[in-house]
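User: Please fill in residues for this 280-position structure.
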């Protein structure tokens, strides 16, 4: 077996062992929806009834979150009629994780049979019409991470070698979320997310470039999970919380503490939107 095929086989075994451990831990029905909760956005787990909670350290072969605002815990339970698998914390390239590590939660979710995903993140607002605390419903993205989670040997039982990306985020779900947000009087528009490696924030010239490319918000995550969803046929929905504004003509310094504070302030609106979406 050549080196590439061997690496793919080892990753497959790693994912399957993690999925088996979670399936054994789960005492209820299999999950149908996976939630990936981004920076400072973990309070949604309080909406899960009778949750089963498992630290990432107890999942075989699973990475451990090191980023601020990512607690590193898995929760299984009900939100209304939906049986959810909620990952409270994700992994990023800037932490030093490989794309295999970053894709672990979504790959494991696929082995557990989920059919839909809701992915959240904190981001910087590039569109001048955005305000701090706004929600952006992703309808497309630009991958500037310089990496792709599908690089390497393809696991055919997971998905095709060349998955289509004409609709990385379910447009039907975007429309539903827009209607729900409007009924709840929550500021939510749709737009394009661009992912960069980080961990530093961008320069004024970089913000100008990203806006010219067509991005509305910028972050350091989400796209790898969305690509895995496209590969596996999982219906993906993604929501960005605008935590800082990226106006290159009036750029203000921002700290992680400020970003987490804005995320915490916006989180109840995000939770209301997702809970109503799951029960609609």
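Assistant: Residues filled in for all 280 positions:
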């Amino acid at each position: 077996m050549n080196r590439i095929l061997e690496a793919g086989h080892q990753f497959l075994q790693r994912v399957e062992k993690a999925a088996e451990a979670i399936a054994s831990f789960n005492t209820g029905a299999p999950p149908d929806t996976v939630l990936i909760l981004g920076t400072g956005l973990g309070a949604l787990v309080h909406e899960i009834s009778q949750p089963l909670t498992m630290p990432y350290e107890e999942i075989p072969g699973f990475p451990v979150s090191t980023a601020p605002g990512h607690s590193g815990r898995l929760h299984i339970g009900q939100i209304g009629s939906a049986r959810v698998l909620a990952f409270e914390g994700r992994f990023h390239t800037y932490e030093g994780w490989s794309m295999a590590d970053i894709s672990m939660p979504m790959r494991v979710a696929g082995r557990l049979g989920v059919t839909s995903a809701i992915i959240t993140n904190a981001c910087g607002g590039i569109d001048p019409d955005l305000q701090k605390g706004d929600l952006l419903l992703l309808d497309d993205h630009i991958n500037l991470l310089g990496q792709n989670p599908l690089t390497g040997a393809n696991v055919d039982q997971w998905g095709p070698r060349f998955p289509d990306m004409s609709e990385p985020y379910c447009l039907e779900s975007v429309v539903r979320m827009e209607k729900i947000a409007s009924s709840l009087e929550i500021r939510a528009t749709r737009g394009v997310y661009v992912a960069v490696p980080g961990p530093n924030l961008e320069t004024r010239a970089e913000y100008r470039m990203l806006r010219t490319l067509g991005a509305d918000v910028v972050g350091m995550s989400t796209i790898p999970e969305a690509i895995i969803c496209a590969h596996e046929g999982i219906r993906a929905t993604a929501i960005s919380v605008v935590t800082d504004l990226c106006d290159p003509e009036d750029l203000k310094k921002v700290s992680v503490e400020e970003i987490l504070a804005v995320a915490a302030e916006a989180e109840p609106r995000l939770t209301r939107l997702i809970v109503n979406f799951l029960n609609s």
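For context: The first strand starts at residue 33 and ends at 37.
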